[in-house]
Amino acid sequence: MMEKKRTDCPALPPGWRKEEVIRKSGLSAGKSDVYYYSPSGKKFRSKPQLSRYLGNTMDLGCFDFRTGKMMPGKLQKNKQRLRHDPLSLAKLFWERRLKGLRPSDVTEEVLRTLDLPNGLQSVVPDSSDDTLLSAIASALHMSSAPITGQASVAAEKNPAIWLNTSQPFCKAFTITDEHIREQELNVHQARRSLEEALMADGLARAAENTQALLEGNTT
């Protein structure tokens, strides 16, 4: 059972509405989910989705998705932290240290580079696909928070000020059900190929052992 509340959102352009869905039962009772609806009725579940839809028409850098309000004080505090915190400043372009590094197997043979989806684009100048892939992999490994990319479109214009250092330095993206199904199919195919390779290797070893036994019996 859920309770839904819809209200106008003055922080967004006219016609936008905020919906808060409060859960009334179950283990998550009392918690709520927030959604936004455009004047045409399109539903948005996250700030990155909202940012991509509005594009350059509105800067959502200080927009708080949960409350539906602009929080300029919080943004100013983040700017000051970046200016005075050497660690945060050092992290801004840490991806550059990964530039030129390539993964290799145990024989030191360089592995084939993965092709990134078109939706994954870096907001940092002079950044390759390899660097971006390493940054996303590191974020997934080091952080327990959702990986969404840079929600603020202002990060592309002035990354030194607007970048969110807790996220990889790529444009905001969303993983759809179609993406998940494609990856599940890739994993299934990879497992099947591995199974076939192991079976072929086992048959080859069995044939070698049989041949060795036959040669031993004939001598």
Explain what the structure shows.
It is a single chain. With 219 residues, the protein is an alpha+beta fold. It has a domain at 182-219. 42% of the residues lie in helices and 12% in strands. The strands form 2 sheets. The protein has a 4-stranded antiparallel beta sheet with strand order 1-2-3-4. A two-stranded antiparallel ribbon has the order 5-6. The protein starts with a strand and ends with a helix. Mean pLDDT is 77; it is low at 84-90.
Average pLDDT score:
77
Overall SS class: alpha+beta
Write the H/E string, N to C: EEEEHEEHHHHHH
- Low-confidence parts: 84-90
Domain MBD: 2-70
Keywords: Chromosome, DNA-binding, Nucleus, Phosphoprotein, Transcription, Transcription regulation
Subcellular location: Chromosome; Nucleus
Main location: nucleus
Task: Sum this structure up briefly.
The protein has a domain at 182-219.
Tag the structure with descriptive keywords.
219 residues, alpha+beta, Methyl_CpG_DNA-bd, elongated, DNA-binding, transcription, 7 helices, 6 strands, transcription regulation, DNA-bd_dom_sf, 12% strand
Question: Could you outline the blueprint of secondary structure elements for this entry?
Answer:
Elements: E1 2-8, E2 17-23, E3 32-37, E4 43-44, H1 47-54, E5 63-64, E6 69-70, H2 72-84, H3 86-92, H4 129-142, H5 154-157, H6 159-162, H7 177-218
Antiparallel strand pairs: 1-2, 2-3, 3-4, 5-6
Pfam families: MBD (PF01429), MBD_C (PF14048)
GO molecular function: methyl-CpG binding
Organism: Cottoperca gobio (Frogmouth)
